């Protein structure tokens, strides 16, 4: 065993010896972009991303790979992930075992809690985001904070998402566009509404809308955790949730535990609303034949919360130059348009940062029958409250709503 | 006899119903309550599974290759071990047996983290070799357990009898031992194959995303929302198990 391991180690070190030292984050600010692009030429970049989406997988396999090869002579290798947390665990172990370079992943798609963990444990290569030429297209707020965690250049915004509700026009003529209206609707239609139980990501997001509503969408929600604001808003939110509970699907005795279950209950006409953190979800489901074609999405008038997901570089990436070039490429207007077109996802770039021709192309993006326009979504965009509200609200829901 | 037949029918239905359901799901479009069958059918999921873009075919080949090697090595390790465990009494045998079974008893998450650190130090992560080695951890104990059963039912005196009749070690093995334990041997190998075939956590951790097997892709889709593709992948994933089941049923009918 030991002999075998020694041989394996020797083989690995032998074939990697001749390489030049890789770029360090400290050198980045003084390195011209051309030099980075030059160093990236002819390399392979490994991109770890959640790969449970057919359209996105197809796009990466074909046009994204081809454009990287054409423009930078780079080979893109996609590592399919079931869960980004798998990568975080892997990096934690590698850090513990002293594998500080020659890691197998150059770029990882990340946000929220995974980013916070990774940043705290110093698992990321950076800061790098502000060195990317294409970062200028992206929202300043997204570049500053990710779920309340300050970004500090350790990840670059890439994809955008916003919470939407869905209804079937053949069943509901006018959906409730505020939390108050939703409350009245639920009481008037017993058994026809439910939400996914937290800590499911989407169920938790639904609860945050109620918290924001009773806190008057105060700007204080983004400025760290405010105990008084939380107490006032959460008391009313919990009261609201307790009041509607007997009118929910199965009298609130049980909740769907995954989004899939809620989707199915909605498609099977058990409940009248579905929800998602992906604005195009209803269109995608219609296209796949999982929702009836009469389904449409709607927003709350005072806004629904949205967030960004990001691209980051692991601390032990073998090819940081390639990672930087690939990320910059993915952030380009051209690639953002392609990706939004192919996966019908929300266009991530702030429209006011585009030139007139780019703007025209963004406006002309094909979107599914149930997806709202970029303008409509942007006009109803609300920021995610600080992560401190999230954990407390989930706990209070568990103690005061579920277990009562 | 009728009771047995009813039992067989119930068992067959219980085993087949999920497969039928998965098959319908993988071809379904617009399947809403209260419809008994989908309103429309589509081969989209299967087209994707077969397309090069999904990279599922190479993942299946990787899975098959790893599982075959794991099965071969497991049997090679388990054969002498099981023989001794079945026939020879020695002090500390029970403790030894317990030690052997430890990887099966201990929660996998607890052992994987330590294993990952070890493999990192030996440079075995992100290689097929590393994945094969780590699959042996759950596969070998089961293989030993199954083969020990075979050897226990085999009387060592039969080997002695053959030897007194002039058979050499090789002949004894070929004409006496092997035929007697062959069914157990095949079963143990198949079992090791299926254990490796179904590994997720070990593969993710040691393969580091560089060794892509079928379960990795299946779990990815299962955590997504695409039901048709998930169902199609689940069927591919179940195929070897179903095949083994059918072959075993055939074999048992022939030897009943």
- Nearest-angstrom radius of gyration of chain B? 22 Å
Largest sheet of chain A: 6 strands, mixed
Poorly predicted parts of chain A: 1-18
Q: Low-confidence segments of chain B, ≥5 residues, pLDDT <50?
A: none
Count all strands of chain B and give the number: 2
The overall strand count of chain A is 11
CATH structural architecture of the largest domain in chain B: Orthogonal Bundle
Provide the domain count of chain A: 2
**Ends apart, CA distance between termini of chain B:** 15 Å
Indicate the CATH topology of the largest domain in chain B: MetI-like fold
Count of spatially separate domains of chain B: 2
Looking at CATH, the homologous superfamily of the largest domain in chain B is MetI-like
Spatial separation of the terminal alpha carbons of chain A: 58 Å
Kindly name the structural category of chain B.
Answer: mainly alpha
Could you state the order of secondary-structure elements of chain B as H and E?
HEEHHHHHHHHHH
Mean pLDDT of chain B: 90
Number of helices of chain A: 16
Instruction: Using the coordinates above, name the CATH class of the largest domain in chain A.
Output: Alpha Beta
Care to describe what's here?
The complex is a heterodimer of chains A (404) and B (256). Chain A is of the alpha/beta class and 404 residues long. Chain A folds into 2 domains: 7-159 and 307-373, Periplasmic binding protein-like II (D-Maltodextrin-Binding Protein, domain 2); 162-306 and 380-402, Periplasmic binding protein-like II (D-Maltodextrin-Binding Protein, domain 2), CATH 3.40.190. Chain A has 16 helices and 11 strands. In chain A, the strands form 3 sheets. In chain A, strands 1, 2, 3, 6, 10 and 11 form a 6-stranded mixed sheet that branches. Chain A has a 3-stranded antiparallel sheet with strand order 8-7-9. Chain A has a two-stranded antiparallel ribbon with strand order 4-5. Chain A is globular, with a radius of gyration of 23 Å. Mean pLDDT of chain A is 91; it is low at 1-18. Chain B is mostly helical and 256 residues long. In chain B, 79% of the residues lie in helices and 2% in strands. In chain B, helix 1 runs antiparallel to helix 11 (227-255) and helix 4 crosses helix 6 (128-152). The longest helix of chain B is centred in the N-terminal third of the chain and has 32 residues, at 56-87. Chain B is globular, with a radius of gyration of 22 Å.
């Amino acid at each position: 065993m030991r002999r075998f391991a020694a041989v394996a180690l020797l083989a690995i070190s032998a074939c990697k010896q001749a390489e030049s030292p890789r770029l360090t984050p400290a050198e980045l600010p003084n390195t011209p972009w051309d030099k980075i692009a030059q160093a990236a030429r002819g390399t392979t970049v490994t991109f770890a991303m959640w790969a449970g989406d057919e359209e996105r997988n197809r796009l990466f396999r074909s046009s994204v790979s081809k454009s990287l090869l054409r423009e930078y002579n780079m080979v893109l290798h996609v590592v399919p992930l079931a869960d980004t947390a798998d990568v975080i665990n892997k990096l934690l172990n590698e850090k513990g075992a002293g594998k500080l370079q020659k890691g197998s992943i150059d770029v990882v798609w990340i946000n929220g809690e995974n980013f916070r963990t990774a940043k705290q444990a110093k698992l990321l290569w950076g800061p790098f985001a502000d060195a990317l030429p294409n970062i200028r297209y992206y929202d300043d707020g997204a570049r500053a904070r990710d779920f309340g965690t300050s970004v500090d250049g350790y990840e670059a915004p890439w994809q955008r998402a916003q919470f939407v509700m869905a209804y079937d026009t053949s069943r509901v003529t006018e959906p409730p566009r505020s939390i108050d209206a939703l409350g009245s609707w639920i009481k008037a239609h017993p058994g026809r509404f439910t939400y996914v139980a937290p800590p499911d990501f989407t169920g938790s997001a639904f609860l945050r809308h109620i918290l924001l509503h009773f806190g008057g969408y105060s700007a204080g929600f983004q400025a760290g955790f405010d105990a008084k604001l939380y107490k006032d808003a959460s008391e009313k939110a919990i009261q609201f949730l307790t009041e509607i509970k007997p009118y929910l699907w199965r009298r609130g005795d049980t909740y769907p535990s995954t989004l899939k279950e809620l989707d199915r209950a909605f498609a099977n006409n058990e409940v009248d609303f579905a929800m998602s953190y992906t604005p195009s979800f209803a269109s995608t489901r219609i296209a796949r034949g999982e929702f009836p074609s009469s389904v449409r999405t709607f927003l709350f008038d005072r806004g629904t919360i949205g967030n960004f997901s990001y691209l980051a570089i692991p601390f032990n990436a073998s090819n940081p130059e390639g990672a930087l070039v690939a990320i910059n490429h993915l952030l380009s207007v051209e690639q953002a348009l392609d990706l939004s077109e192919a996966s019908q996802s929300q266009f991530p770039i702030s429209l006011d940062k585009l030139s007139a021709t780019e703007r025209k192309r963004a406006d002309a993006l094909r979107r599914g029958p149930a997806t709202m326009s970029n303008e409509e979504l942007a006009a109803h965009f609300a920021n995610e409250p600080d992560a401190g509200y999230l954990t407390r609200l989930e706990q209070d829901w568990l103690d005061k709503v579920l277990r009562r | 006899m009728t009771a047995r037949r009813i039992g067989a029918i119930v068992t067959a239905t219980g085993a087949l119903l999920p497969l039928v359901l998965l098959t319908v799901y993988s071809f379904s479009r617009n399947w809403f309550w209260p419809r008994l069958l989908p309103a429309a059918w589509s081969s989209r999921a299967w087209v994707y599974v077969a397309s090069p873009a999904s990279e599922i075919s190479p993942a299946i080949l990787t899975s098959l290759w790893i599982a075959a090697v794991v099965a071969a090595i497991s049997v090679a390790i388990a054969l002498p071990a099981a023989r001794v465990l079945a026939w020879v009494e020695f002090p500390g045998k029970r403790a030894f047996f317990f030690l052997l079974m430890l990887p099966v008893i201990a929660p996998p998450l607890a052992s994987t983290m330590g294993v990952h650190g070890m493999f990192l130090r030996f440079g075995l992560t992100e290689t097929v070799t590393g994945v094969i080695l780590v699959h042996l951890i759950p596969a070998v104990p089961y293989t030993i357990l199954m083969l020990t059963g075979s050897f226990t039912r085999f009387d060592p005196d039969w080997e002695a009898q053959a030897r007194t009749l002039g058979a050499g070690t090789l002949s004894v093995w070929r004409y006496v031992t092997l035929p007697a334990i062959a069914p157990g041997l095949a079963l143990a190998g198949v079992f090791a194959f299926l254990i490796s075939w179904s590994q997720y956590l070990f593969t993710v951790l040691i393969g580091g995303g560089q060794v892509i097997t079928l379960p990795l892709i299946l779990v990815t889709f299962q955590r997504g929302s695409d039901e048709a593709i998930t169902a199609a992948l689940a069927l591919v994933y179940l195929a070897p198990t179903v095949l083994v089941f059918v072959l075993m049923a055939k074999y048992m009918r022939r030897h009943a």
